[in-house]
């Protein structure tokens, strides 16, 4: 099996993993008795920001797993590009959720559950497509030191934690009005 095919399989596996775990993550906060610590990593309410966690944390978790697998299978050329590919893939997915959600709710004037679920799945697919593309191609984006991308990911994690503790009073962070 050639290396790009193996990477493609890992990206497909990741897509399934993130869709399933992200979907389950929607309910973990309630299942665990609404504990504050759990709320740092799982959706606490129906705000758009809280729904970003459904993509963010499962994607990061799978990225670590994928890095280990790439090193194990001696696919070091992809492991070297993984921090770049995954960071830009994650950002593309997060921005997709925000832009598609606010566009369609602006058009329809309300949120529709089936469309919300579809947006999540589409964003996961976008995330993995972008990361795959960046990992198989030699782009100027992925020439920077991997530490730069890991630092950026660390900053994102801190932002997610801080905004979970103290969300700003703007629509992205507020639950929709009933």
Molecular structure report:
The chain has 178 residues and is an all-alpha fold. 76% of the residues lie in helices and 0% in strands. It contains six helices and no strands. Helix 3 runs antiparallel to helix 4. It is globular.
Bin the helical content. Answer: over 70%
Radius of gyration: 17 Å
Largest sheet: none
**End-to-end gap:** 53 Å
How would you summarize this macromolecular structure in one to three sentences?
With 178 residues, the protein is mostly helical. It has 6 helices and no strands.
What features would you highlight for this structure?
mainly alpha
SSE topology:
Blueprint lengths: L2 H29 L4 H4 L8 H25 L3 H33 L4 H24 L9 H20 L13
Helix pairs in contact: 1-3, 1-5, 3-4, 4-5, 4-6
């Amino acid at each position: 099996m050639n290396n790009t095919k193996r990477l493609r399989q890992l990206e497909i596996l990741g897509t399934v993993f993130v869709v399933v775990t992200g979907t389950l993550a929607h309910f973990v906060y309630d299942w665990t008795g609404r504990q504050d610590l759990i709320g740092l990593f799982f959706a606490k309410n129906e705000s758009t920001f809280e729904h970003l966690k459904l993509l963010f944390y499962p994607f990061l978790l799978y990225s670590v797993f994928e890095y280990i697998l790439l090193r194990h299978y001696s696919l070091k050329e992809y492991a070297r590009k993984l921090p770049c590919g995954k960071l830009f893939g994650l950002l593309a997915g997060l921005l997709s959720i925000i832009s598609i959600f606010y566009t369609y709710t602006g058009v329809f004037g309300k949120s529709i559950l089936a469309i919300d679920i579809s947006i999540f799945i589409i964003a996961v697919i976008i995330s993995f497509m972008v990361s795959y593309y960046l990992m198989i191609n030699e782009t100027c984006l992925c020439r920077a030191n991997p530490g730069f991308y890991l630092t950026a990911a660390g900053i994102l994690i801190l932002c997610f934690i801080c905004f979970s503790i103290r969300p700003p009073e703007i629509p992205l962070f507020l639950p929709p009005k009933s």
